[in-house]
Specification:
This protein has 143 residues and is α/β, with parallel strands linked by helices. The protein is built from six helices and five strands, in the order H-E-H-E-H-E-H-E-H-E-H. It has a five-stranded parallel sheet with strand order 2-1-3-4-5, sandwiched between helices. It is globular. This is Response regulator receiver protein.
């Protein structure tokens, strides 16, 4: 009987596992994001193009998207525009993770629909803090 209760708890924890979509055309950046996301014990999806990101967002409906802005096919700002314009994906939070570091870039991405912004190169602790802030199943520490 205890085993059954234990397995039910394990299943409940798995049901609460978040899914994060990491989008970056640089394989090294995706590997780094993969390592960062291990801290959160979440399912990870990756995409190297904007169109691939849109397809995964529609089919898998991740809990959070970490989005590079400079992508080879369509840029991240356009990806956000498509996501926010579609009722199936408009509620997915998007964090821009980009080398565009000017204040006007940040403001433009936030206006486009990103909920947060992290400038590359970033400190791992800063990225972890932003992810923790926007994932619903981890303790919130938004500042």
């Amino acid at each position: 009987m205890n085993l059954e209760v234990g397995s039910q708890k394990i299943q409940a924890n798995r049901l609460k596992q978040s899914t994060v979509l990491a989008v970056d055309d640089n394989e090294d950046n995706l590997m780094l994001l993969t390592e960062v996301l291990k801290v959160f014990d979440c399912a990870l999806l990756t995409a190297t193009h904007g169109q691939m990101a849109l397809m995964l967002a529609h089919s898998c409906h991740p809990d959070l998207i970490l989005l590079d802005v400079m992508l080879p096919d369509i840029n991240g700002e356009e990806v956000v525009h498509y996501l926010k314009g579609n009722p199936q994906t408009e509620d997915i939070p998007v964090i821009a993770v980009t080398a565009l570091a000017r204040e006007e870039d940040r403001d433009r991405l936030l206006r486009a629909g990103c909920i947060d912004y992290v400038s590359k190169p970033y400190m791992l602790e800063d990225l972890e803090s932003r992810i923790r802030c926007h994932l619903s199943n981890v303790p919130t520490a938004c500042k």
